TrEMBL record:
Residues 59-178 form the Aminopeptidase N-like N-terminal domain. Belongs to the peptidase M1 family. This is Aminopeptidase N. The keyword Hydrolase applies. Its EC number is 3.4.11.2. CDD domains: M1_APN (cd09600). Coiled coil: none annotated. It comes from the Bacteria. InterPro entries: Aminopeptidase_N-like_N, Aminopeptidase_N-like_N_sf, PepN_Ig-like_sf, Peptidase_M1, Peptidase_M1_dom, Peptidase_M1_pepN, Peptidase_M1_pepN_C, Peptidase_M1_pepN_C_sf.
Length: 853
């Protein structure tokens, strides 16, 4: 069932207009579709996509029933032979019956808490009606909804709203994956936005009655996003209404349906008592992300699903820029790099590695990955670094001008950069076509006598093989470098070195004394940098580097080298403890930056780094090394941390603004360390007194780590047992923060509870994701973590294959562990592979993972 990029063929018909008429009923919804079509090639049959649960009731071509012998139905398509079609514009009318109430996969039209809603990306529309369900077939839509639900929504502008019926018109041609429909008992938080050119747009955030007081932040975020896209990209909104709807059952985060974004309720609803600072930040960025898709995704969409990164990489890049403008840019950059390493480097290192633009897949839903999204965004960041801010702005203007209304490709995207800047991007394109994380080695050569003191940097690049790609030619790598003089002053401001060869040297002259190199500033390329550098030099950079990312990275490297030595049984950590103390005490540094520096790399990140160096990670040793180092930091700096804990308290009513959140983050980082030596006493007090979820959750994690979380967990449960989002946290935190030896036992116990509503994706992810996030717990040597996870994935696969497949990535690192763990993991993977009726989604994932072992 593999599909290949190289096989692309345009659709042989032009779709001029789509009319849909819905009669909603939970178990028997009728959909009438009227498609105005015109053949491009009259010799071709018309093949429409349509899932096996779509029941065809009638079919007419220009009002007449075609000869049944010329119509064929299989599990995935409806084919009308060319002989049954006019060689001129025609109208195709179908009536079908579908059953939203039995749709547990949440793909197509389904019910969530009694509300009708849809999710059509990537290929969900085919579960609603027969249609050319591919992104390069675009049409304006007219939609009529009949239902007794009070609120009836679809894409575009409302035409009429009556009793039990509503009609919507979306004038902007769009592919079916951007279709949406919502019908439910909903209330709106409302506002109005006036665009730069004077269009008045009604904004609504629709939620269930009772949730209105938690939707205000989402609305504020939307207004900021609309303004930002006008100011920074010159992009205006293009309809009279913009609707956002929050639903409780949703496979992913959110969806950019034209004019009707549908969101997982956890990315809309927030109040100080129920949401953390991180939740607020995430809501702001996902609201922005989906809004930005209106131009990068909707007005310009993808020719086929291989081009997914065209809209996702760019839209992630744009939402990252937005957050940097709204909050602290250096902190945002560091957070993004942390996430990239934790998820994308890990993916690139294992059996699921794939290019930013894959060239084959079995199930496209398996490719909504960190590589397509986050690495896709990094690639655009590199492009911008290479062509400069002006070049980037010109290229983007050209992109919008040239491709508005089209379904485009990565070739189109690169061409606008070439045309706008005159640069040849042939080699750069490898970032899209080649998988794997390049390793960059930097060697320094200092010549006191040459050119008044010359430093030569020699870089070599090498990318390890990935599945199906053994040979990795050199890529273009922008390496941002600065130089710090021996007294701590910067002697060379950031210079962008452009590496294009396997090995390449760059010289800096007239330096006088030998400087310290600050390399890969701002994380200028998504690579692993290997350099021969001692801890004293790292500590020097941590103290003096002017680039916040490189400064943080120096501290990170210090911590990492200490942790790696400790996990291998060697004594280490003194330099780190010393340097980190000085930084934590530096009141001139931004609190959130200091907090990031105080956070030790996670177990998973340590394991990924070890594996990159060819060392087999030992999860238990890593876990205790981390414990050990954290305790020693706390011991060494107890007074300082205690001062920070007190002085970073934010007084007054909780506000989610960036400055307050930054102070809380430093306070919490201090608490996490102090918790190692105060038996959890501070956490206990904080849990009982804090009025906001940020501090309560941090305190709860501390208490669980100290083995005294029971009372707090009970209190939280009593207070919030009717709040699904808080209860999700309640499930996940107990497993995630558990002593690894007990993690899968705790998960097992929680899974047996009545309120483990496992068919709800958020609840399932909370528990299974919580275990996967407990590195030494999931990778328990006895295989208990693997078995528990495999059991539940198999159960979930029968109900919701997308979720099962996505959560199966918990196993993606399995080949890097020791023989015993590998055996256990392989057995779990094989058990899943052998399951009767396994979905295409899960089958593709487990077979790719097994193939690597
Ligand atoms: N386009 C959405 C977003 O990034 C993601 C939807 C993916 N859904 C899916 N079932 N694969 O914003
Ligand atoms: Zn997106």
């Amino acid at each position: 069932d593999t599909r290949y990029l190289a096989d692309y063929q345009p659709f042989p018909f032009i779709l001029e207009e789509t009319r849909l008429d819905f009669d909603l009923a939970p178990d028997a919804t009728r959909v009438r579709a009227n498609l105005k079509m015109r053949p491009r090639d009259a010799t071709k049959d018309l093949v429409l996509d349509g899932g096996s649960a779509v029941e065809l009731l009638s079919l007419h071509i220009d009002g007449k029933v075609p000869d049944p012998a010329l119509v064929a139905r299989d599990d995935e398509t409806l084919t009308i032979a060319a002989a049954a079609l006019p060689d001129a514009p025609f109208s195709l009318t179908t009536e079908v019956r579908i059953d939203p109430s039995s749709n547990t996969a949440f793909e197509g039209l389904y019910l969530s808490g009694g509300m009708f809603c849809t999710q059509c990306e990537a290929e969900g529309f085919r579960h609603i009606t027969f249609y050319p369900d591919r992104p390069d077939v675009m049409a304006p839509f007219r939609v009529t909804i009949r239902s007794e639900k009070p609120i009836l929504l679809s894409n575009g502008n409302p035409v009429s709203v009556g009793d039990g019926v509503a009609e919507w018109h979306d004038p902007w041609p769009k592919p079916a994956y951007l279709f949406a429909l919502v019908a439910g008992d909903l209330v709106a938080v409302r506002d109005v936005f006036t665009t730069r050119s004077g269009r008045r747009v009604d904004l609504n955030v629709w939620v269930r009655p009772g949730d209105q007081d938690r939707a205000g932040f989402a609305m504020e975020s939307l207004i900021k996003s609309m303004k930002w896209d006008e100011d920074v990209y010159g992009r205006e909104y293009d309809l009279d209404v913009f609707n956002i709807v929050a639903v409780d059952d949703f496979n992913m985060g959110a969806m950019e349906n034209k004019g009707l974004n549908i969101f997982n309720s956890k990315l809309v609803l927030a109040s100080p008592e129920t949401a953390t600072d991180a939740d607020y930040e995430r809501i702001e960025s996902v609201i922005a992300h989906e809004y930005f898709h209106n131009w990068t995704g909707n007005r310009i969409t993808c020719r086929d699903w291989f081009q997914l990164c065209l809209k996702e990489g760019l839209t992630v890049f744009r939402d990252q820029q937005f957050t940097s403008d709204m909050r602290s840019a250096p902190v945002k950059r560091i957070e993004d790099v942390r996430a990239l390493r934790a998820r994308q480097f890990r993916e690139d290192q294992g059996p699921l590695a794939h290019p930013v633009r894959p060239d084959n897949y079995q199930e496209i839903n398996n490719f909504y990955t960190a590589t397509v999204y986050e690495k896709g965004a990094e690639v655009i960041g590199m492009l911008k670094r290479l062509v400069g801010d002006d070049g980037y702005a010109r290229a983007l203007d050209l992109y919008f001008e040239r491709h508005d209304g089209e379904a485009a490709t990565i070739e189109d995207w690169l061409k606008v950069f070439e045309d706008a800047t005159g640069r040849d991007l042939t080699q750069f394109k490898r970032w899209y076509t080649d998988a794997g994380t390049p390793h960059l080695t930097m060697a320094e050569d200092w010549d006191e006598a040459a050119s008044g003191g010359q430093l030569t940097l020699t870089f070599s690049q090498r990318t390890p093989p990935t599945p199906g790609q053994d040979d990795k030619p050199p890529r273009v790598i922008p390496v941002a470098v600065g130089l710090i003089g021996p007294n701590g002053d910067e002697v060379q401001a950031t210079r962008m070195l452009e590496m294009t060869e396997a090995q390449q040297s760059f010289s800096f002259d007239g330096l006088g004394a030998r400087p310290v190199v600050s390399a890969l500033r701002g994380f200028s390329a998504p690579v692993v940098l290997d350099r021969n550098i001692d801890d004293a030099t790292r500590a020097f950079l941590l103290a003096h580097d002017t680039d916040p990312f490189a400064r943080w990275e120096a501290g990170r490297d210090l911590a990492m080298s200490a942790l790696i030595s400790l996990s291998q049984g060697q004594a280490a950590g003194a330099d780190y403890i010393d340097a980190i103390g000085r930084l934590a005490a530096d009141d001139g540094a931004d609190p959130a930056f200091r907090a990031l520096c105080l956070m030790l790399p996670g177990d998973e990140e340590i394991a990924t780094r070890l594996a990159a160096e060819g060392v087999t990670p030992d999860p238990d040793a890593i876990h205790s090394a981390r414990d050990d180092l954290a305790r020693r930091v706390a011991d060494a700096h107890a007074d300082l941390l205690s001062d920070l804990y007190d002085s970073m308290a934010v007084s007054g009513a909780y506000s989610p603004d960036a400055r307050s959140a930054e102070r809380r983050s430093l306070r919490i980082a201090a608490l996490g360390l102090l918790n190692r030596i105060d038996r959890g006493d501070r956490a206990e007090v904080l849990f009982g007194t804090a009025g906001n979820m940020t501090e309560r959750m941090a305190a709860l994690i501390c208490l669980i780590r100290r083995g005294r979380g029971q009372a707090a967990l009970e209190a939280l449960h009593d207070q919030f047992d009717d709040n699904r989002l808080v209860m999700d946290k309640w499930f996940s935190v107990q497993v995630m923060a558990a002593d690894p030896a007990q993690a899968s036992g705790i998960a097992q116990r929680l899974a047996a509870r009545n309120d483990f509503d496992w068919k709800n994706p958020n609840r399932f992810r909370a528990l299974l994701g919580g275990l996967a996030g407990n590195h030494a717990g999931f990778h328990a040597a006895d295989g208990s973590g693997y078995d528990f996870t495999a059991d539940w994935l198999m159960r979930m696969d029968k109900v919701n294959p997308q979720i099962a497949a996505r959560m199966s990535t918990a196993f993606e690192t399995w080949p890097r562990y020791d023989a015993e763990r590998r055996e256990n993991a392989r057995a779990a993977l094989q058990r899943m592979a052998a399951m009767d009726g396994i979905s295409r989604n899960l089958r593709e994932m487990v077979s790719r993972m097994i193939a690597a072992g």
